[in-house]
């Protein structure tokens, strides 16, 4: 007969799998092991998750909880309710089919969470942002998302150059096609997104067509003031 200890052990194992498969959810709940990743939102991956949940639900349903402490019985009932809600959402509400914005929210929201939640020094969170940006598990489309990803790639370049030559990078070197005007637009977009959250300008301008990440965002802030903050 399964004991409450077995129930908690198996539930913890399931939660670990759930967090690994849903990194953005993990970040939101305070589990930061997967902050640099995105989940797999393909139909086959979602179906596999639901199949695992159904299997775990069937396993827990066989547990005889009559002799357990009341707290354990309540926890068992709560976990069963959560599992059923996952299955209901997938099979009846079909949110994954009806709400394409869910994938966009997971992608962009996963980045915003890392900016807003102050669980670690900002440079560490920026590294996770860049890792999450590099994740190829979500198919992105639409001008707004392409713009967002381009700005985070610029953020990645500025972050990588932060300790070299004062961190300054020419605008033309920030985009693959060398279009300085396009780079300036991306930097402007990056500023508009991050400045309200950070409380300061995240990207500085030397007044001569070069940009650098604000020293406060770097692990080892570069010395010397910028000749302009743009």
Which labels suit this protein?
9 helices, 230 residues, mainly alpha, elongated, single chain, disordered C terminus
Question: Can you walk me through this structure?
Answer:
By secondary structure, the protein is mostly helical. Helix content is about 60%, strand content about 5%. It has a three-stranded antiparallel β-sheet. A hairpin with a 4-residue loop joins strand 2 (about 205) and strand 3 (about 210-215). The longest helix has 24 residues, at about 70-95. The radius of gyration is 22 Å and the shape is elongated. The N and C termini lie far apart (about 70 Å). Residues about 135-140 and about 220-230 have low confidence and may be disordered.
Summarize the structure.
The protein has about 230 residues and is mainly alpha-helical. Helices cover about 60% and strands about 5% of the residues. The protein has a 3-stranded antiparallel β-sheet with strand order 1-3-2.
Largest sheet: 3 strands, antiparallel
Give the helix tally: 9
Beta-sheet strand percentage?
under 5%
Strand order in the sheet with the most strands:
1-3-2
What oligomeric assembly is this protein in?
A: single chain
Unreliable spans are 136-142, 221-229
What is the helix/strand order?
HHHHHHHHEHEE
Distance between the termini: 68 Å
Question: What class would the helix/strand composition place it in?
Answer: mainly alpha
Number of strands: 3
Averaged pLDDT: 82
- Range of helix content: 55-70%
Write down the overall geometry: elongated
The value of Rg in angstroms is 22 Å
């Amino acid at each position: 007969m399964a004991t409450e200890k077995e129930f908690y052990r198996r539930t913890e194992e399931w939660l670990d799998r759930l967090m690994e498969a849903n990194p953005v959810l993990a970040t939101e709940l305070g589990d930061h092991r997967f902050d640099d990743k995105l989940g797999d939102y393909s139909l086959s991956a979602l179906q596999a998750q639901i199949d695992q949940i159904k299997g775990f639900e069937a396993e827990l349903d066989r547990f005889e909880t009559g002799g357990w402490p009341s707290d354990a019985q309540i926890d068992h009932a709560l976990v069963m309710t959560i599992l059923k809600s996952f299955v209901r959402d997938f099979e009846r509400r079909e949110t994954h089919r009806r709400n394409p914005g869910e994938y966009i929210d997971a992608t962009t929201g996963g980045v915003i969470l890392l900016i807003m939640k102050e669980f670690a020094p900002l440079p560490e969170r920026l590294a996770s942002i860049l890792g999450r940006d590099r994740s190829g598990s979500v198919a992105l489309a639409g001008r707004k998302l392409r713009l967002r990803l381009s700005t985070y790639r610029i953020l990645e370049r500025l972050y990588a150059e932060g300790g070299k030559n004062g961190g300054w990078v020419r605008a033309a070197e920030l985009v693959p096609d060398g279009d300085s005007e396009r780079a300036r637009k991306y930097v402007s977009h990056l500023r508009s997104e991050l400045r309200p959250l950070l409380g300061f300008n995240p990207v500085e301008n030397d007044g001569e067509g070069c940009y650098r990440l604000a020293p406060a965002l770097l692990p080892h802030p570069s010395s010397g003031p910028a000749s302009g903050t743009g």
